[in-house]
Amino acid sequence: MSLIIKQHSKLTSQLVNWTLFILSLALIIITLYLIFINVPTDANLGISQRIFYIHVPIAWLGMISIVVVAIASALYLWTKNNKWDDLAYSTAEYGMMFATLIIVTGAVWAKPVWGVWWTWDSKLTTTLILWFIYASYLILRAYGPKGIQQARYAAIIALIGAIDAPIIYLATQWWRTAHPSYVVGPLESSGGLDPQMRTAFLVSMITFTVLYVFLLSNRYKIRRSETELDELYQEVLIIE
Amino acid sequence: MPEDKTLESQMSETNFVSTNRIKLLISALVLLGALCYFAFMAFQGATVYYYTVGEAKDINTSNSEQMLRVSGKLVPTSFTRKVKSTKAYFELTDGTYTMEAIHDGLLPDLFFNEHSEIILEGSFSDDHIFHSQNVIVKCPSKYVAIEENQS
Fold it and tell me: Closest approach of chain B CAs to the CA of A58, in angstroms?
């Protein structure tokens, strides 16, 4: 009976995985069409503004990742269930990737528009801090003490690190920066974005988020297997 | 007798672990303190990313080595550049005050855009002319489609 249930849940999981994969692929094609063909060119920034549809969704994922890592870490500290630690670890890896991409796509956009690759404005500096938070988290996971202690230390880094995400978001409001004030989102000034650009932006946000869920769920499954294998190995060691 | 020895060695081991922990705690505290101090010092200076032209007007020019950033809009008629020279003379304004500035070097494409806000990195000379070393163009916070007939 349990075997049937297990097989059934495996099938469901595979079905969900394939659905996410096909959905991501379809959405990527639509988004690319919107960004490069459908969307009008910006009157002031010209062709370079099109990176906006990639840069902002990436920034959203980079910032939300640290929040996910922190929530999963808090749940791990609360429940002591390894599943949460695995989720935190898997998310941190993607967070690191997206934090790197925020800085790279930002620099590529800043050069033609601002005239510099980098400037020490508050939004850039706090994003760099986020990158260092991910880096220290992953360094700890690679070289720190093994086992429960490592997971706990890492959880504390994540909990402290998550404070940075709202600071990055609100930097434009709190300090003078080279970034424009909010073009979209809850703090936007009205009419900040052309309607066609808004559609492309929203579709791109959905695309990146779906792709993120697909990638993360797969990384999480691999991490789960690694942990389970590790636990089995520990059990064998105890028996011996 | 051997039991006592084990106990003794166990105790010394516990002591060793606890002194190690104290050392770790102290170094962590020192590091955290240093980090907070640096963060505080850095934030004091860095939270003001740039001054407006009006604020910069009041800055004492005797300390002319001091690097700062000043932001304003270009006064379109003020821009001059000699033939075969990279040295540009122009004025920035915040609507009320204007400031003379000199920049030697390339200028970003959006420098002359009427919607652009310009941030100059540099220092004031004694005659209160701003000598810019870097030009950063702050882009407009509105994205509008280019007119069909323009493209």
Answer: 19
Return d(Cα B144, Cα A159) in angstroms, integer.
39
For residue range A53-64, list pLDDT tens digits in order: 999 999 999 999
Q: Is residue B146 part of a domain?
A: no
CATH of the domain at B64: 2.40.50.140
Total number of domains in chain A = 1
Q: What is the band of B146 on the pLDDT scale with cuts at 50, 70, 90?
A: confident
| Residue B24, number of CB atoms within 10 A of its CB | 10
Q: Is the Cβ pair B139, A120 closer than 8 Å?
A: no
- What domain range is A77 assigned to? 51-239
DSSP, collapsed to helix, strand or coil, labels residue A192 as: coil
The 3-state DSSP class for residue B51 equals strand
Q: Which of A52, A176, A182 sits opposite B49 (nearest CB)?
A: A176
B74 and B89 together in one domain = yes
Residue A45 is given by DSSP the state: T
Spatial separation of the C-alpha atoms in residues B124 and B119, rounded to whole Å: 14
- Tens of pLDDT along B85-133? 888 898 888 888 888 899 988 888 788 888 888 899 888 888 888 888 8
CB contact under 8 A, A112 and B71: no
Which residues form the domain of B3? 1-47
> In terms of domains, do B66 and B29 share one?
no
Residue B143 CB contacts under 8 Å (≥ 6 apart), including other chains: A42, A44, A45, A49, A52, A183, A192, A193, A194, A197
Residue A88, C-beta contacts closer than 8 angstroms, at least 6 positions apart: A68, A69, A72, A73, A76, A154, A155, A158
HEC string of B80-148 equals EECCCCCEEEEEEECCCCEEEEEEECCCCHHHHCCCCEEEEEEEECCCCCEEEEEEEEECCCCECECCC
